[in-house]
Amino acid sequence: MPGINADVACHRLNLDPQTRPIRHKMRTIATKLEEPTREEVKKLLEAGFISEIQYLGWISNMDCYPLPRIDALVDSTVGFSIMSFLDAFSGYHQIRMHPPDVNDVSFITREGCFSYKMMPFGLKNAAATYQRMMDRVFHGQRGRNLEVYVDDLMIKSKGVDSHLCDLKETFATMRKFKMRLNPLKCVFGASRGKFLGHLLTPAGVEPNPDKVKTILELESPRNAKEVQRLTGKLAGLSRFLSRSGEKCSSFFKVLRGNQKFEWTAECEEAFRMLKRQLSQALLLQSPKEGEDLALYLGVGTEAVSSVLVREEGMKQLSIYYVSRILKKAELRYPILEKLAYALIISARKLRPYFQAHSIRVVTDHPLRKIFEGVEHSGRLAKWSIELSEFDISFVPRLSIKAQVVADFLADYIVEVGAEEPRPQGAWKMMVDGASGKHSLGGVVLISPQGVTIEQAVALHFPVTNNQAEYEAVIAGLRLAKELGTQDVEAFTDSLVVASQIRGEFEAREPTPVKYLSKIRVIIRGFRTFSIQHVPREESVVADRLAKFGPRGGGGEEP
User: Which residues form the RNase H type-1 domain (predicted)?
Assistant: First the structure.
């Protein structure tokens, strides 16, 4: 495509030459979106709209070529009954060094100085170079009947006959490019096998038994270095461990600051608990295309966690466990915000699953109202925007269908979906209304835990100040009702409205009478309700919403 003459139109990036650009990580996408993405990139390349780059000058010699997501490769095996696992023979050494760079990869021994003519292990960009080469060699097979991660290959098929054809196709490609395999490390025609730290079986995905055995045979750490090695080993198995952040939090406490190392009783108990969990069968499932998935959230004293599950009849089968230790500021979040944080952490970690499936968040807490249809600000607004791209719904938990979910929810300070009483204490509701060319109402609800929810109400009909105040009261009561609130303490800066609702002043005009009738019907649905008159300066946020916040829903003319 010739393109428009640069003299007519040419887009410039107005960058400060003194500012260093930011290198973004590769965006993770669902497996089913990889082929459309590949086709779109191919189309843009052929049209000349984009070009491939390898080395960016502003990040020295770093090659940004992305490695595949291991969990995505593992999940891609669902539905395949027979597999072969191939390992390249000294894979890196099969790639030649660029001639001008040969002398730059030299080493010295007592026998003399030497330089590599073939790519050695340990170079900064070696993995990226190898992955790029493998992606190009097997570009026609990746995702269809073969998966590759650097020098590890897996051929997958749905039957013996097709597997023989897939092996033949793979070997023909290898001969074409003169690639060699290590026969001692290859496994052919297996129904189960080790791949990228996982054990793939017909029943699901298990952790590599060698990695599990290593941890089970460990003794209690005696210094900080051994604790770091332990946490590193556990990180590789975190997908299989329920509430791993909560269980490992004591390990990180002994690593903080320059304090003297002390392996506490709490650390020892957590270590034994993790060993007990690892000694049990740890089996995860991979989701099937198009099925809905359920997400359970949990909040502990020092961490938030979640488990993603799929349903098969009356069974619930776990797919992925996520856990995150809370930082100092996050520890002070109200309970509902911690639950919201658990959801946003899960969405980030499990982005490919959230992209490819509808997610049902199973909870008895009013998370839906925090994210949907409520005017809010700060981090809740950012999280709501971030989650808006996914198909997420919120449903109440009626029963625990599987022991895996029961184990996940057990021993939590706050259990999402647990059949427990609502938090004690009344919700505070501050309201304000303003009449004018654009009549508005403002509502601020504050939960007993301190979660603040704001809503602005646009009134599309002429009202007086008191009528706008009534509209704000009705909107606030309806919102409180939707949130499942039982006790409400309302505050308004209108003495007339507060007194009429309490029955101290008589309403004689038809419009206030209609408002009062509607309010009393709604109030009957609460356990307790009170309303007080307060000075305007004590209801600043509601007053601001009533003046400047026309983004909420409209009121109803009585």
Answer: 423-558
